[in-house]
Amino acid sequence: MISPYSFAKPWLFALDPEAAHDLTLRALDAPGAKLGLRLVAGASVKAPVKLMGLTFPNAVGLAAGLDKNGAHIPAWNAMGFGFVEVGTVTPLGQPGNPKPRMFRLAEHQALINRMGFNNAGADEFVANVRKARRAGFTGILGLNIGKNAATPIEHALDDYLICLEKVYPWADYVTVNISSPNTKNLRALQSGDALDAMLQGLQTKRSQLADQHKRLVPLALKIAPDMDDEQVELVAAAMKRYQIDAVIATNTTIERSAVQGHAHANEAGGLSGAPVLEASNRVIASLRKALGKRYPIIGVGGIMSSQDAVAKIEAGANLVQLYTGLIYRGPSLVGECARALSRLTQP
User: Residue 329, SS3?
Assistant: First the structure.
């Protein structure tokens, strides 16, 4: 069956990628949009997954980055996602990197972006989340936090703690993004003493907030695909040491071998889409080996079909998230992947 999205896609792809992104987000808020999304996406899949003390309606979530300000949460829910992650948010609003900063590599079903955590800041972000909750959104909501570009890397923890305190009351889980390649030196927080200091500080703050709010909100760490097995093992050991509840694997890659020769191959930024699938799955498999059978892993990167979603689970993930695949395939991909993953758990 031909997806309705196939008719809109040529018009969107004729636009600048970021302009198309902004236009799509605005369309999500149009009258009747949620009904239209439900019709395009099909019936929501009910195949509950219990993880981090939460019950996810199905195993397919929206990855952070598509809705940085958390301004369109009800629309994502209408697409049939089992959970929604919004952000990355920083303490203060910031414009991000200069434009152009997003590029399509259509032949490779890929994107390169160097957005740079462009967002309206934590206060507006929280106001949007509260608005969605008041409007009746009851789904699983992940809130993704980062640091301002102007904050020196040695003071990065301060920004994460500010964000954690602001989003904590409204989150089902909080994701700590230390793996974007588009904020200078951010990935240095993924290793060594910097990682230990970050996780220890977050865990201490989380304990204080749990006492204050009378509930323990799970913490997830989002990591990069550009790690070897030894680096993954060190990150895994640190997550266990500081009792981080889950890991999201992975962010975008700085590797370009799969797209060499393309006009945009050498653009700075993170590469997402089909070319990152193999690297992401390798990191997931390495994490599963290092963390054991029960540790929650959310797999993201390169899911363009239900077969790709299944491959994520087979590599060791418990849940998956979509980003670039949604841009190339449209809303029907959500249900396609959720149905495929639901069959994995059927006797």
Answer: helix
Residue 188 has a CB neighbour count (10 Å cut-off) of 14
Read off the CATH number of the domain in which 174 is found: 3.20.20.70
- The active-site residue out of 44, 180, 272, 286 is 180
Residues 195, 166 contacting (CB under 8 angstroms): no
Q: Exposure of 235 by Cβ count < 10 A (0-12 exposed, 13-18 middle, 19+ buried)?
A: buried
The whole-model pTM stands at 0.95
Residues 223-233 pLDDT 10s: 999 999 999 99
Domain of 50? 5-344
Closest CA to 74 of 35, 123, 124: 35
Q: 48: helix, coil or strand?
A: coil
Could you tell me the sign of the dihedral formed by the alpha carbons of 63, 116, 119, 239, in that order?
Answer: positive
Q: What is the DSSP string of 134-175?
A: HTT--SEEEEEE---TTS-GGGHHHHHHHHHHHHGGG-SEEE
Average of per-residue pLDDT values in the chain: 94
In three-state secondary structure terms, 297 is strand
In the numeric block, which tokens belong to residue 198?
Answer: 């970050």
- Total count of domains within the chain: 1
Q: Give dist(CA 207, CA 212) in Å, integer.
A: 9
Q: Is 280 known to be catalytic?
A: no
